[in-house]
Amino acid sequence: MPDTLSPDLLRKMHAYWSAANYLSVGQIYLQENPLLETALKPEHIKPRLLGHWGTTTGLNFLYVHLNRLIKDNDLNMIYVIGPGHGGPGIVAHSYLEGSYTERYPAIERSRNGLQRLFRQFSWPYGIPSHVSPETPGSIHEGGELGYSLAHAYGAAFDNPDLIVSCIIGDGEAETGALATSWHSNKFLNPARDGAVLPILHLNGFKIANPTVLARISRQELTELLRGYGYDPHFVEDDDPNFVHQSLAGTLDRVLFQIRAIQGAARAPIWDKRLERPRWPMIVFRTPKGWTGPKFVDDKPVEGTWRAHQVPIADFKSPTI
Fold it and tell me: What does pTM read for this prediction?
């Protein structure tokens, strides 16, 4: 089966993802030298480090790919992220797109504007470390985990042209509110409502320990999600080139499924006795802290709970 992404498009999407990741790291760490035009020094680092790295690269990856899907298919789609603590990633994308500077002209698309972007993150009189109302286009904060999927379905009801892509953290999936929200698909009418595409971001760990859904077998997870009424598609690996092609192909397939469900329900000859459809969803399994340091001070970081917040906190004598 041919790759979904051409070599040129793959190169551009990977470069965009890398840029978003760099802007995300810069917000967490840098107060000076935003483009690293000189050798990095301790005084360039913020005195107080706060933020969440572990989920951010996965959120950035999904954002880039959903933008490709929107452009290729002229979609009306919004992006709801349950791990709202991945705020630096969403700010990074809105800055790259230009909407952040449009809303906040002082954050120019220049060296000085980039430094202001970095400094304001988790900074007095700046912006929170979570997605917040100050983020252009934000409708979901995500600081209190568990409500993303309910908000996603709420946005889709009575909005027939809208697709809501909802990223669900695997730690968030353990909350009571989210565990119940899986059943919202029972109330979605494909004839008059929009669609929700749940994407379970399965990176294996929450703040200090493993997540439940990452510790059960793929068969058991599949059976669980099918029991909720979904058709799960799996995208799993740590090689970005493979994941790029796998996710792009999967997104095309699930969009086809969504349109087929809606097309059958909205046809004039629709049989009202049709069974409730099984909506597609995606399980996106990538390492916690993907692309970050694999070891810090001889302790594993990438793919562990240590990547959840700030992977390198001591800049006096770190060993990587």
Answer: 0.94
